[in-house]
Amino acid sequence: MKYEIINHGMDNSQYFQGCGTAFSGFNSCVTGCGSDAVEAYEDAVDQVWQTCTTKDAGALKLPTRPRGYGITRRDRVPARLMDQDSDMYWYVSIRF
């Protein structure tokens, strides 16, 4: 099975446009959110495992530390925004 990891970056939860599969060649899409890119990616991976059967999720062979997608803890919502209760999150999607 093929997959695509999309690092959307930081956005306000009220304005995030989301992610879908239209015109992409993929059938499913999940989006994770968190205070940094790693947390958002892990959330998206958890959603893949909840969405798919164990066999299909295992067939994706998603990396635990994806390289080349900018998934690092340095990519994070600044602390000043987290402290203000601002609804700012980091978003990462996985299409498969």
Task: Report on this structure.
The chain is α+β, with helices and mostly antiparallel strands. It has one domain. 28% of the residues lie in helices and 24% in strands. The protein contains 3 helices and 3 strands, in the order ββαααβ. Strands 1-3-2 form a 3-stranded antiparallel β-sheet. It is globular, with a radius of gyration of 14 Å.
Jot down its keywords.
96 residues, 3 strands, 24% strand, globular
Question: Counting H and I runs of at least 4 residues, what is the number of helices?
Answer: 3
Q: What is the overall shape?
A: globular
Describe the largest sheet: 3 strands, antiparallel
Low-confidence stretches: none
- Give the mean pLDDT: 91
**Total domain count:** 1
Strand content: 15-25%
Strand order of the largest sheet: 1-3-2
Radius of gyration using CA atoms only? 14 Å
Distance between the termini: 7 Å
Brief account:
The chain has 96 residues and is α+β, with helices and mostly antiparallel strands.
Walk me through the topology:
Elements (H helix, E strand, L loop, with lengths): L3 E9 L16 E6 L2 H15 L2 H7 L18 H5 L4 E8 L1
Antiparallel strand pairs: 1-3, 2-3
